[in-house]
Amino acid sequence: MSSVTAAPVGGVVPMSRRVMNLAHIVTQNARRLPAHPAFIQGDLRHDWKGFDAQVSALAAGLKARGIGKGDRLLVHSKNCDAMFVSMFATFRLGAVWVPTNFRLLPDEVAYLATASGAKGFLCHGDFPEHAAAVAATSPAPEFTWRIGEGAFGEDEVGAVIARHRGERIENAAVEHDDPCWFFFTSGTTGRSKAAVLTHGQMGFVITNHLCDLVPNSTEKDASLVVAPLSHGAGVHQLMISARGATSILLPTERFDIDEAYRLIERYRVSNIFTVPTILKMLVEHPAVDQHDHSSLRYIIYAGAPMYREDQKAALNKLGKVIVQYFGLGEVTGNITVLPPALHEAEDGPNARIGTCGFERTGMQVQIQDDDGKEVEPGVQGEICVIGPAVFAGYYDNPEANAKSFRNGWFRTGDLGHMDAQGFVYITGRASDMYISGGSNIYPREIEEKILTHPAIAEVAVLGVPDPVWGEIGIAVCVNRPGQNATEGEIADFLGPKIARYKMPKRFLFWDALPKSGYGKVPKRLVKDELEKRGELDFLKGKAS
Hints:
14-stranded mixed β-sheet; alpha/beta; single chain
């Protein structure tokens, strides 16, 4: 990211845009709240003073291994204290934290290592295959450290922290546009890209989240982590840390709903970041009636649309505590918000059914036509956004940047409209991407892998509405002449080639795919044919 010398404004020439290093959050908490719990997972707990010491110790170890300002540190891990420490240790050095979704396959993580230009790699001990795949890249990271038990890596993160305990590393001087986090996202098109988040941008995002999502939060609050810290949950915990509040993790990677409610009751948890699928599970589980959850003030859901009936059930069971926001990784969640007060449990004139809320504080949203002009209220167009929460751009990807920005506006790739009062309604997507359980899924990647099966001539993968996951994938396949592949055969073939959450839920076989006059296969024609054939009737049973 290159710096640009600003022109004089009002006779003043701006100098350095020095901002707070995000790791100063930990420094502040260690001074003001040294004995207050920062992190709890099972029997493990760190107060802010001890947490700050761990951050410095890991930063010292990374510095000794050659990590400095601007260097990228790839982290592939399940939720644990070492992952949380690694975030702030990386920030403290002025380096760039590059976390991955721990559900990704080895070759996918290897690609992220190459795409980010990672200098070092921290890998959870449960993923030796991922460590081997990253080590095989060219150029490979200069070192691999293991998180926890295992038999790979030149060192182990806990051992590094122990060796450097007591060493003090000061927070590196950073400017507004200095990168701090590569947030990998598929964006609006194509393969995973590194959205560059900066110290200055994230300082605004923290302030905005505190303002719009969890107002009046203090160190007396506590947050339960039920999603991977590599993405939205990590941003949420960064924001919670800025208030000195406690982050509580489930004791295992399994989402144990009964245990979640026990933790909510025990630690008087006040906020949770989640996705509609998980919120639905929390509402429908018997444990909701067996534990005291009256401490909950904000349950933030994002990442996918929420069915109206599920929304009403959550309000009736938990009260007016749910908060919706619409946002992408590129805008770090900062596009719209629907606060608790505007969630209505009953349909009626006051219920804005289907809206994802209004503009976030300090952000501007506009619905634009194909030429980039703002459309009238109620008219569909592309949802575009400007403001301090918008990322700096995709790392080393000028083509993607050119496609994603127009006249300074970030183009989300989502279609929608805005009413006269400024409430935004998402109506579709400019691309074929669909969201299942809060995860973005791009059909082309899946289609290309299915097409490597020798029996398949054509395939179309698309998302269809599902009452549990928001959307699920359906793969419609065409066998080659003389071939007779089955649903089970293709599922078994595809399983090792993609992450589990990307796996289509059904594989159907047709004689041919519907085509347009240009010989293309529009997904809308495939969906129309699915409905015509009654192939989606199985979803009606799930919804009833």
